[in-house]
Design a protein that fits this description.
This protein is an alpha/beta fold. The chain has helices at residues 59-73, 107-123, and strands at 12-22, 35-47, 78-81, 98-101, 128-136, 142-146. Helices cover 21% and strands 31% of the residues. The chain has a 6-stranded mixed beta sheet with strand order 4-3-1-2-5-6. Strand 5 (128-136) and strand 6 form a beta hairpin. The chain is elongated, with a radius of gyration of 17 Å.
Length: 149
């Protein structure tokens, strides 16, 4: 007899890459300087049940909700903590593509923001939950933020 798979154990995963600059205020090394990355996000989505087609979510819906949010808000922008001392020097920051953030833009904080704020806003009313965000800052270094950790 075949055992049924719990739909909550099935994940739909989509990746998306953006280019963005940042500075990690208080960093003890070169990441305290203005620099940039080719960020790669992994979005891990779950749902309490599969839809009538048998999916957690259509991959194009992840693109529309999360990938496009990144494109519109962080891609080709400079991410800067609003409390960073250099923020005051950027009087015309908005027109230069600077995004003032309520947190120091570490990979950890960025992934946490997408998981806890962006995901719930974008998936509100859909029955889909953003379960985990993996953010690759480089080919060798990444962070993982999960609701189950």
């Amino acid at each position: 007899m075949e055992q049924a798979i719990n739909p909550a154990k099935i994940k739909a995963i989509r990746t998306h890459s953006i280019c963005a600059g940042h500075r990690v205020h208080g960093h003890e090394s070169k990441c305290a300087h203005l620099h940039g990355h080719n960020y790669k996000f992994e979005f891990h989505c779950t749902a309490g049940s599969l839809d009538n087609v048998g999916r957690v979510i259509d991959f194009s819906d992840i693109k529309e909700k999360l990938c496009m949010w990144l494109e519109e808000n962080w891609d080709h922008r400079f991410l800067l903590w609003e409390k960073d001392p250099i923020a005051a020097d950027l009087s015309d920051a908005d027109s230069m593509g600077v995004v003032r953030m309520p947190f120091n833009p570490t990979a950890e904080n960025m992934a946490k923001h997408v998981l806890e704020i962006v995901g719930p806003e974008q998936f509100a009313g859909t029955g889909v939950m953003l379960e985990k965000v993996v953010l690759h800052e480089t080919d060798k270094c990444f962070v993982e933020v999960s609701r189950s950790l």
